[in-house]
């Protein structure tokens, strides 16, 4: 690996991890020596990259630092194109359109040598053989999640029993044959998962739920794997 590429990858490693990263961990990922990592870190600090380090603890990249956009490796281009292709085939209409726009932007901005990876990718996403139809405005639902706003639902469960819920939407799971809304349910006073094709009616409320979205999402993640599907 060229030195310039190695320096770039060190920044990427530090940028993707919120906790300090040891020289050993960096050396293992880059398949190089710890001594080389020490030298590279010194070069980056000399170039005013805001890296802080402490012996025995590791290195962190201070917030606010970023690289010029779309300095992508071949693997990163393929990963982005594969993900966007999957969304274009399986996402709701707004996300599918955004995914196609994203691929067009990547193709227009990456260096010429990487453009074939977008136009003629070696990895392909296949369409789902079956997609349940969403019965809620998915773009508005994503907006409610971003804004931390409550949602009123009229929902039919697997047995067809209908109930009225007020929920705090957290995230949308895009599964192979259906989409799932993860939310805190005021009726059940617990986290629940609702299939979007079983929502009979939805009201997007102006009320914000009282908990920070990041805190609520962290609590929900701790419950994954247990009961909670409606």
What is the CATH architecture descriptor of the largest domain? Roll
CA radius of gyration: 22 Å
**How many separate structural domains?**
3
Please report the number of helical segments: 8
Tell me the major beta sheet.
Answer: 5 strands, antiparallel
Q: What is the total tally of β strands? A: 7
**What is the C-level CATH assignment of the largest domain?**
Mainly Beta
Q: Classify the secondary structure makeup into a structural class.
A: alpha+beta
Question: Would you list the SSEs in sequence order as H and E?
Answer: HHHEEHHHHEEEEEH
As a percent range, the share of helical residues equals: 40-55%
Beta fraction of the residues? 15-25%
Overall shape: it is: globular
Given as residue ranges, the uncertain stretches (5+ residues, pLDDT < 50) are: none
Strand line-up in the sheet with most strands: 6-5-4-3-7
Tell me the span between the first and last alpha carbons.
50 Å
Mean pLDDT: 88
The name of the CATH topology of the largest domain is SH3 type barrels
Describe the structure.
This protein is of the alpha+beta class and 230 residues long. Helices cover 41% and strands 23% of the residues. It contains 8 helices and 7 strands; from the N terminus they run H-H-H-E-E-H-H-H-H-E-E-E-E-E-H. The chain has helices at residues 3-16, 23-30, 34-46, 74-90, 93-109, 115-119, 138-147, 213-223, and strands at residues 51-54, 58-61, 149-156, 162-174, 179-185, 190-195, 199-208. Helix 1 packs across helix 3, helix 2 crosses helix 3 (34-46) and helix 4 runs antiparallel to helix 5. The longest helix has 17 residues, at 74-90. The protein is globular and about 65 Å long. The termini are far apart.
């Amino acid at each position: 690996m060229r030195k310039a590429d190695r320096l770039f990858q060190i920044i990427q490693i530090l940028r993707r991890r919120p906790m300090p990263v040891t020289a050993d961990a960096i050396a293992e990922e880059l398949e190089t020596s710890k001594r080389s990592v020490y030298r590279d870190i010194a070069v980056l600090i000399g170039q005013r990259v805001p890296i802080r380090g402490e012996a025995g603890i590791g290195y962190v990249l201070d917030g606010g630092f970023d690289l010029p956009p779309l300095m992508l490796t071949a693997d990163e281009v393929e990963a982005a194109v594969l993900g966007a292709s999957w969304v274009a085939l399986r996402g709701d209409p707004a996300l599918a359109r955004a995914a196609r726009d994203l691929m067009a932007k990547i193709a227009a901005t990456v260096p010429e040598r990487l453009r074939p990876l977008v136009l003629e990718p070696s990895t392909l996403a296949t369409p789902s053989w079956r997609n349940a139809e969403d019965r809620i405005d998915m773009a508005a639902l994503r907006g409610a999640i971003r804004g931390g706003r409550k949602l009123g639902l009229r929902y039919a469960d697997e047995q067809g029993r209908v109930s009225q819920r007020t929920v705090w939407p957290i995230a949308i799971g895009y599964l192979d044959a259906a989409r799932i809304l993860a939310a805190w349910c005021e009726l059940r006073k617990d986290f629940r998962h609702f299939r979007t094709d079983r929502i009979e009616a939805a009201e997007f409320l102006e009320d914000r739920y009282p908990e920070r979205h990041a805190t609520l999402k962290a609590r929900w993640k701790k419950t994954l794997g247990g009961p909670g599907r409606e």
